[in-house]
Amino acid sequence: MRRLAVATLDANWEHDHTVPSRTLYPHQWSWDSAFIAIGWSHVRPERAWCELASLFRAQWVDGRVPHIVFNPALRVGSYFPGPEFWESGLAEGAPAAATSGLIQPPVHAPAAWLAYRRCPSEQARAALRRLYPRLVAQQRYLATRRDVGGGGLACIVHPWESGLDNSPAWDAPMAAVPADAAVMRAYRRHDTAHADVAHRPTDLDYARYVAIVASYRERRYRDDDLAGRHPFLVECPLVNAAMGAAEHALARIAPLVGADPGPHRERAARITEALVRRLYDPTTGTFHPRDLRADRLVPARTVLGLAPLVLPDLPAQQVSTLVAEACSPRFGLAARMDRPLPSHDRTAPDFEPLRYWRGPSWMNVNWLVRRGLLRHGRPDLAAGLRDSMIELVARSGCHEYFHPDTGVGLGSPAFGWTAALLLDVLADDPAG
């Protein structure tokens, strides 16, 4: 299995970064690169630092790290939505490289810390020193430009920014976005040429995705009037939990690069407090996204609600209720798991075991939940999740995602973060 994972990463290596997949995702994706760097740190640590450096070279002047960095060697039209759709070069402060204008969960500082811990060296410390101010700028962008609700949390402006693109968590806020499925006749979707249409977002979903991007692109991706004009504004538990975890990681990195860890610890505490205050529902015992347009929590119970377990300072009450939620029939976490952890409540009427993020099991979310369980003293449940993750790949290979009942591989084969995080759980080092 280790050889399979390394071979998958090697096959996806593209001179200074790793593509998620050669077929479906031929460019560089933001949070994919963070997870992939963790895998590289176990076998080729120099590639871990090259991966992160490559991504952050495309950071915007305002601090945002774009969710896609496009490979200029690929022909126009080979991927949708490609650089000609985003038009990032027209935006103030965009990099020379063609990118999207959106972000993804800021899991990069924890990835950098883990890469250093896996293989500490003077070269790794120098790489950390170069990366640190960019990681700080990324956090500053989210904490300032994106605090649209004024409550101390970052908001996402598109479902793609959550990483869980097609989650049922976005159905309610997306329903308010005007769009017509006929819009998609003007474009050629790339994803459905490489994956089963029944597994992917619908054309109506894609029409809404396009409409949201168009709204942001018209203002050249400025964030100064999001509250007044933008059609999709949501505070996401995963994005904000990742932002808090990033501050904890930066507090560990800071002494290594001659910086003060204190401000990072203070910001981490503020983010955790804001998450509990704004996104936790004591009735359901889990976290929910907050739709800022409607000023209410989204009722869907998805794996997003378990993400705050990654925060080491999450209060004991919330840890207890999240563990209960994870172990309930909705998600089925156990020390010995009969089925993989799903991405959505498997008892819900809109649970779809085949469709992207609406039920299938994903290696990266499982990895995040596992780390949270280890942080909060539940090695028994973490071991069950680890065994389940390894079994998925043993049965089906390094697929993009997996059927939440049978474990059959779905989406793209030879997927980067599945291979990378398999290497990490095989190493089974819970520290860091």
From TrEMBL:
Gene3D superfamilies tied to this protein: 1.50.10.10
InterPro entries: 6-hairpin_glycosidase_sf (IPR008928), 6hp_glycosidase-like_sf (IPR012341), Glycoside_hydrolase_63 (IPR004888), MGH1-like_GH (IPR054491)
Stretches assigned to the Mannosylglycerate hydrolase MGH1-like glycoside hydrolase domain: 25-418
Sorted UniProt keywords: Glycosidase, Hydrolase
SUPFAM superfamilies referenced in this protein's UniProt entry, alphabetically: Six-hairpin glycosidases
Coiled coil: none
Superkingdom of the source species: Bacteria
Family: Belongs to the glycosyl hydrolase 63 family.
The protein, known as: Mannosylglycerate hydrolase MGH1-like glycoside hydrolase domain-containing protein
